[in-house]
Specification:
Oligomer: heterodimer
CATH architecture of chain A: 3-Layer(aba) Sandwich
Largest sheet of chain A: 6 strands, mixed
Number of helices of chain A: 5
Structural class of chain A: alpha/beta
Largest interface: A-B, 23 and 19 residues
Distance between the termini of chain A: 21 Å
Radius of gyration of chain B: 20 Å
Radius of gyration of chain A: 17 Å
Number of domains of chain A: 1
CATH topology of chain A: Rossmann fold
Structural class of chain B: mainly alpha
CATH superfamily of chain B: MetI-like
Order of helices and strands of chain B: HHHHHHHHHHHH
Strand content of chain B: under 5%
Strand content of chain A: 25-35%
């Protein structure tokens, strides 16, 4: 699938945050989104995820022949991940339950993938920063998303956690998922991306 | 002191004996208050959610009005309802005065603003990422709303417990629109007022023990919930 942005702009009052005539993000593609604080990275990602309506323009989810259309194809991960007030396993099961699917094996696989299987019964709000990000990725992975939008996933994480998240993202890409990684500074996570998007002075420049 | 002790013992004995009149009065109280609470609950939570998450003209007027209604004495609510339901009133044709439905209506009016106000606070204190997380993981609007209800469940339970405590312990409205009719509209509080007026303290004390026990139970439950909920800790 691909996310197609057409004439997307966002204004707050008279102030224009950004204006993007056209941009495309494909599944299987890894893109690093650069931009200073306040440039509009989070807003752009929320618009792409369908969580926010842009002032003008539209974002189309274009599926290839044979691909299944579903609401869970594009998933946005907050900078500070929100975990539901349940245990780790129930967090992973959440999206599956929404579509009436019971698949314990899939949940087990996601938990193992995120190295959280040994703490699956623990209350989610007791997790460390790195574990929270891994749980958020596992919660997304279990739904087989085609595009994941990650908002500053490395903030407040130590080097080991960043490395683990990076491995998980590489694995997601190998599975065919694309991702857009927002980060205001060039760091380890962005170095494996295929493309760079720069959000600066209200414009999106693709490199 | 001996008299008080003696009365207390007699009251406990009356409770333990399963006195049908006394437990019938307790039954009326619970039946009326639980009915009022159940009827008011969903509309009140929905309004609390709308006021917390939507911006529209008159929103602040509505919030201010609801907060003002919290301070209205129960007897004033009873008075207004009495005038509406009395034979000469606009709703007189329904013959509701001195009936349990009239008491239920009165208690709905009393608990509704409290439920809205407390649920509004709970929804406002909830993390704004709850709905976004639910939506991005595939929830439709209703599923996202129920997820939010789950996330703030303890704060909402606190609202329900507080509202129930307010209506089951009120006397002014129940007395005015219920009429304190034995086996029909006489509830715990109106019975206590009547028995005390007659100088018959035993039944009044027995019913008071029921109310106090219930208040203790609700507060212990609430405390337990509070210690188990991060959301409620944020609200309180």
């Amino acid at each position: 699938m691909r996310l197609q942005l057409t004439n997307v702009s966002q204004k707050y009052g008279a102030e224009r945050l950004f204006s993007i005539p056209s941009a495309t993000l494909h599944s299987g593609q890894a893109v690093h989104l650069h931009g200073a604080n306040g440039a509009g990275k989070s807003t752009l990602m929320k618009i792409m995820a369908g969580l926010q309506t842009p002032t003008t323009g539209k974002v189309d989810r274009l599926f290839e022949m044979g691909e299944k259309t579903n609401r869970q194809a594009v998933i946005y991960l907050h900078q500070q991940t929100y975990l539901f007030d349940t245990d780790v396993r129930a967090n992973v099961e959440y999206g599956l339950k929404l579509r009436g699917e019971k698949n314990p094996r899939k949940v087990d696989e996601a938990l193992t993938w995120a190295r959280l299987d040994h703490i699956q019964d623990r209350a989610a709000y007791h997790l460390s920063g790195g574990e929270r990000q891994r749980l958020a990725l596992a919660r997304a992975l279990v739904l087989n998303p085609q595009i994941i939008l990650l908002d500053e996933p490395s903030s407040n994480l130590d080097a080991a956690s960043i490395e683990r998240i990076q491995e998980m993202l590489a694995d997601l890409k190998n599975r065919g998922a694309g991702y857009l990684l927002a980060c205001h500074q060039k760091n380890l996570m962005g170095q494996y991306c295929d493309q760079n998007w720069y959000l600066s002075e209200s414009q999106l420049v693709v490199d | 002191m001996t008299d008080i002790w003696h009365t207390l013992m007699q009251a406990l004995a009356q409770l333990a004996s399963g006195d049908s009149q006394l437990w019938g009065i307790v039954g009326v109280s619970f039946s009326v208050s639980l009915s009022a609470l159940l009827i008011a609950l969903l509309p009140a939570l929905s309004l609390g959610f709308i006021l917390a998450y939507y911006r529209f003209p008159g929103r602040w007027v509505a919030i201010s009005l609801l907060n003002s209604l919290l301070a209205v004495p129960t007897v004033v609510v009873g008075l207004v309802l009495y005038m509406l339901l009395s034979r000469a009133g606009p709703l007189g044709d329904y013959h509701l005065l001195f009936t349990q439905p009239a008491m239920v209506i009165g208690q709905i009016l009393l608990c509704f603003p409290l439920l809205v106000s407390m649920s509004l606070s709970a929804f406002q204190a909830a993390d704004h990422r709850v709905l976004e997380t639910a939506r991005t993981l595939g929830a439709n609007r209703w599923q996202a709303f129920t997820t939010l209800l789950f996330e703030v469940r303890f704060a909402l339970m606190a609202a329900v417990v507080t509202a129930f405590g307010r209506i089951i312990a009120e006397v002014g409205c129940a007395m005015m629109v219920g009429g304190n009719i034995l086996h029909y509209t006489r509830n715990i509080t109106t019975a206590i007022a009547l028995e005390t007026g007659k100088g018959e303290f035993v039944q009044g004390v027995a019913l008071g023990i029921v109310l106090l026990s219930m208040a203790l139970f609700m507060n212990v439950t609430l405390g337990w919930m509070q210690s188990n909920s991060r959301v409620l800790r944020q609200v309180s």
